[in-house]
Amino acid sequence: MANLRQWRQWIPGLALAAAISVLALGLALGAGLVRYGASSLTLAILIGAVLGNGWPALAQGARRAGLGLAQRNLLRAGVALYGFNLSWQQIVAVGSAGLLADVLLVASTLALGCFIGIRLLGLDRETALLTAAGSAICGAAAVVATVPVLRLDEARTAEKTAVAVGTVVLFGTLAMGLYPLLYAWIGPQHLDFGRYVGSTVHEVAQVVAIGDALGPEVARGAVVVKMIRVLLLVPFLLLLGAFLARGSKAEAEGASRRSPVAVPWFAAAFILLAGVNSLQLLPEGVVAALRQCGMVLLTAAMAALGLETTLARMGRAGLRPLLLGAALFVHLVLGGGLLNWLLG
């Protein structure tokens, strides 16, 4: 009986998040906006933010419990199912140069993001990490996957997630205009442009959009390299979880130094499901359905976060996250170009 009452508390908020996610997916896939780099994740948080600012009471009252569930549980499940988008065969296909470019750019972008964000701009650790993760790995998906590891309260989650996703949307959109110009200027004879795009552009949808504009050969290489970057999300989450756990134990008086580090279950599930996908243990139709299910869950989570993203909350963040996003964008374009040129 208690479980039934709990489900009834969740239904209004979940129904609202589901409705926004259906609209976002319809615009991204049905209306074809994904071809222009507008993924369902970014559309969901934008739609949610518009509704949340125009009708603040929408995210309160009876809908509060269900929206909280979407921000926590649906988000984690969606990240786990995202593993079906990857396979170990993709790693082999890009070769050592593609893998090295991804690892070096992800590591350098995360390190630079923390240094510039925390040391130079004076941002809090969570905002700097979320912004750096979005730029370094896979845009909005990396931001929402990092949130549970940070263990923020719901109010701070919405504010910081929206700011980080905002930088991804802005500079990813700039990339879609910039990279075709760079391709026309540099040309494919001086740079593996598919690898360059895949290792430096924020969102998967943005990589696909740029690849489509530059031709099928660039598109194939760019998407595969980008998916390898997505796979690096898991070691990042595990290392971040270990680092934060160590810091918490050091601060807690009398804490045992031998306490085991908690591994985020959704990160372990991500790796497991990528392995299942690699071994082709499930029919392609089932895998396609699970991929779509994961995207729906992530989109619903982003919708729930968007509903709590008010202009007042974003205004409190100021210009500093934008400056951090700009610095990381310059690093990816220039540093990523130089690295890919050196790798041949």
**Biggest β-sheet, characterized?**
none
Termini gap: 64 Å
Structural class: mainly alpha
How many strands appear in the DSSP assignment? 0
Taking pLDDT < 50 over at least 5 consecutive residues as the criterion, the unreliable ranges are 252-261
Helix content: over 70%
Subcellular location: Cell membrane
Keywords: Cell membrane, Membrane, Transmembrane, Transmembrane helix
Membrane topology: Multi-pass membrane protein
Protein name: Integral membrane protein (TIGR00698 family)
Topology:
Elements: H1 2-30, H2 40-54, H3 64-81, H4 88-120, H5 125-138, H6 140-150, H7 154-186, H8 193-200, H9 204-214, H10 216-231, H11 233-251, H12 265-279, H13 284-307, H14 311-317, H15 320-343
Helix pairs in contact: 1-2, 1-3, 1-13, 2-13, 3-6, 3-12, 3-13, 4-5, 4-8, 4-10, 4-15, 5-6, 5-7, 5-15, 6-7, 6-11, 7-9, 7-15, 8-10, 8-15, 9-10, 11-12
Membrane topology: Multi-pass membrane protein
Keywords: Cell membrane, Membrane, Transmembrane, Transmembrane helix
Main location: membrane
Question: Would you write up a description of this structure?
Answer:
This protein is an all-alpha fold. It has one domain (2-343). It has helices at 2-30, 40-54, 64-81, 88-120, 125-138, 140-150, 154-186, 193-200, 204-214, 216-231, 233-251, 265-279, 284-307, 311-317, 320-343.
